[in-house]
Specification:
By secondary structure, the chain is mostly beta strands. The longest helix has 28 residues.
């Protein structure tokens, strides 16, 4: 046995031993407190409980970390788009806005490998965190619920969650039978700005203990319209040319087509379930602002430039189950296993340019203890084996075999007016490349928090966390041109783990018609991994190298809602939201840090009608780094009108005007902000039918 295999085997034995012994020890120590009455009941209202990051489940109002949830009601009428675009605008969340086919969430100024995107609590096993032009292999059109956790306190998901977690829950593996043996949904919408068309459907059928699901979605759009020339005034003038506003135009090569379909089957018993599912995702999309360049001898003549398009394919298989116990030392055991085969192909015209593949298997086993004396506890072990490969002219990252193993425990103690929370995790990550060499990392992460409720209407919380993140394959081994970032990227095989110490203060307040939520945070990074220019040039591109430095991020997120009028189910709600983040490193400001944003909304429910006016103001961003231009702020307004004769289920018809003032919108978080602004004025209409 090799040294690597021996070390991984030893770590696996230690993780499994810990996961098996600790669950037995905890209830013995807590037995003196007696059985908590709450242990005999189970929460069944999923909408009130946050399931991501807390295996025993807690309500959003009792969370020490910042959480936002998009439930099925919000998702069925949400605009069609990729994950980053749909979530952008939530407090502290923006989008990489690379193209209509590729956008990832940006959380508190952090993106890429620092934001963990999950499907049903499991990793995607794709390559979307490698580059901003890589699409996430999970589409909001599949989801019945999306949970967004901001900040690094989510130990259940390891170092890749150092910035936050986005969990896309699709319900493909049923955990309970439908009430009448059958339910489903159908959605459809169209948009004017890109001639977009979307349709989706899902059905759940239960017969005895067996429950089966079928679902599918198809979204396609053409090149989208913008109110100004694609290239920004700032970039034109920076190049020494005279800017000419020729009016509205179209972003070329911005069309996209994504389709996904899957099925699941579960056996559901009184004490648990066991299910399997399979999903196929296929996507084709253009990369605007990118035409192929010959980096060996300069750019090809404009008439010979080939558009860059991308084809994505992934087949994914999942197994998930849970078994619940009665009057036992263990409350429930939950198992998840996922296997995926992913291919990302970049085409230069009709020719294949570069192919990225990712194939892997991930598993997670969680043991949740009975609630005793206000005490909740869970223990888990997680493992991943993934093979990454890239081939072609722009395969700037070599083949890498990645193995990860983690063991963790989470605890929470609740009293009537105060409580404590804590967690501990140990991770190993091994990267083995025939070109770049072999590196292995071990990290210990921990968190602790406390809350106090001086009155029933006020929740005050304070949490501390210390997390470690191992470098990615790109940060370690990159060596070559990366057209998506317009740089020749160079990794550093000697990088150490990135470590962050964070503190967050939380306030939840609800009094009469008023509801408020606020989060103040600060994160200090030791060995922050940053991509910085060297001043050199290679293959016609500026050379950027991964380096480590110290960094500090701090910010604020707040929401305030006022129920101005209420009569039965009718009412008028007014809301304000504000978020701000600032980042600093020893080498200067980090790139693509979003500016502040202020949101205002008024929502009126009157009989079957819902009307919502939203106004968003985003500030200028002039704190920039090298090779980055400042970005002007903008103000947008959206107006939504929906009709639903039954608010709980049934038919909803809606129409919405987005960016009504046809504003020029450039997101500072985007690599392409000075080449492709976001869409202009858009009218969309659709329907959602839940049955």
């Amino acid at each position: 046995m090799s040294i690597r295999s021996s070390r991984l085997a030893g770590a696996a034995r230690a993780a499994l031993l810990t996961a098996l012994i600790l669950p037995v020890a905890t209830p013995v120590l807590a037995q003196a407190a007696g059985q908590d009455p709450e242990a005999t009941g189970r929460t069944t209202q999923l909408d009130d409980i946050i399931v991501t990051g807390a295996p025993f489940g807690i309500s959003a109002e009792a969370s020490l970390i910042a959480v936002d949830v998009l439930d099925e009601e919000a998702l069925v009428t949400a605009p069609s788009g990729t994950l980053g675009d749909v979530l952008s605008g939530l407090p502290g969340v923006r989008s990489t806005a690379f193209s209509p086919g590729a956008s990832r969430p940006v959380i508190r100024g952090l993106a890429g490998p620092r934001v963990q995107v999950l499907t049903n609590g499991m990793g995607l096993i794709d390559a979307s965190s490698l580059s901003p032009d890589h699409q996430v292999a999970a589409d909001p059109g599949e989801a019945v619920r999306i949970e967004v956790l901001r900040g690094p306190q989510t130990l259940a998901f390891g170092g890749s969650a150092i910035g936050g977690v986005v969990n896309v829950i699709d319900g493909r593996i049923p955990e309970e039978a439908p009430l009448d043996g059958f339910d489903g949904r159908v959605t459809a919408q169209a948009s004017s700005v890109d001639d977009g068309r979307s349709i989706g459907a899902g059905v759940t059928i239960g017969q005895g203990p067996w429950v089966m699901t079928f679902d599918g979605m198809d979204h396609r759009s053409r090149d989208y319209d913008i109110p100004v020339p694609a290239e920004s005034r700032r970039q034109v003038e920076d190049e020494g040319e005279v800017y000419e506003d020729t009016g509205g135009t179209t972003v070329e090569n911005s069309a996209s087509h994504v389709r996904a379909f899957g099925t699941g089957l579960s056996y559901i018993a009184d004490q648990g379930f066991l299910g399997v599912s399979v999903k196929r995702t296929e996507s084709d999309y253009g990369v605007p602002g990118h035409a192929h360049e010959d980096h060996g001898g300069g750019a090809t003549p404009p008439e010979e430039e080939e558009e860059v398009t991308i084809g994505l394919e992934q087949t994914r298989y999942d197994l998930r189950g849970e078994w619940r116990f009665v009057d036992a030392p263990v409350d429930r055991v939950r198992l998840s296993v996922g296997y995926a085969d992913y291919t990302h192909t970049e085409f230069e015209g009709e020719e294949i340019g570069t192919v990225f593949t990712s194939e892997g298997l991930e598993g997670r086993l969680e043991v949740v203890m009975p609630r005793r004396g206000g005490w909740n506890a869970a223990y888990g072990v997680q493992g991943l084996s993934r093979d990454f490969d890239a081939a072609g002219d722009e395969a700037y990252v070599p083949p890498v075999a990645i193995t990860e193993l983690g063991v963790y425990t989470l605890h929470r103690y609740d009293r009537d007016d105060w409580g404590l929370e804590g967690g501990l995790r140990f991770d190993t990550r091994d990267l083995d490349s025939p070109v770049g060499g072999q590196r292995d990392f071990s990290n210990v992460s921990a968190s602790a928090g406390a809350y106090f409720k001086p009155v029933d209407s006020l929740f005050l919380g304070l949490s501390l966390a210390r997390n470690g993140r191992a470098p990615t394959e790109a940060e370690l081994f990159a060596e070559g041109p990366h057209v998506a970032t317009r740089a020749f990227e160079v990794g550093d095989g000697d990088l150490d783990s990135e470590k962050v110490t964070s503190i967050e203060a939380t306030v939840h307040w609800e009094q009469g018609p008023w509801t408020a939520d606020m989060h103040l945070f600060r994160a200090d990074y030791d060995g922050f991994i940053d991509l910085r220019p060297t001043g050199a040039e290679e293959d016609g591109l500026p050379v950027f190298a991964y380096v480590q430095t110290d960094a500090e991020f701090h910010g604020l997120e707040s929401k305030l809602d006022y129920r101005a009028w209420e009569s039965g189910e009718d009412g008028l709600t007014l809301g304000l939201g504000y978020d701000y983040v600032r980042g600093d490193t020893d080498l200067g400001a980090p790139a693509r840090i979003p500016p502040w944003a202020l949101n205002a909304r008024a929502e009126l429910d009157l009989g079957p009608w819902t009307t919502r006016l939203s106004v968003r103001k985003v500030g200028d961003q002039d704190r920039v780094t090298d090779f980055e231009l400042p970005t002007d702020g903008y103000t947008t307004a959206d107006l939504y009108l929906g009709w639903s004769p039954d608010r709980e289920q049934g038919l909803t018809l809606y129409v919405e005007g987005r960016n009504l003032t046809d504003e020029e919108v450039r997101e500072h978080t985007s690599f392409l902000k000075d080449l492709t602004p976001l869409p202009g004025r858009n009218l969309r209409a659709g329907m959602a039918w839940r049955f």
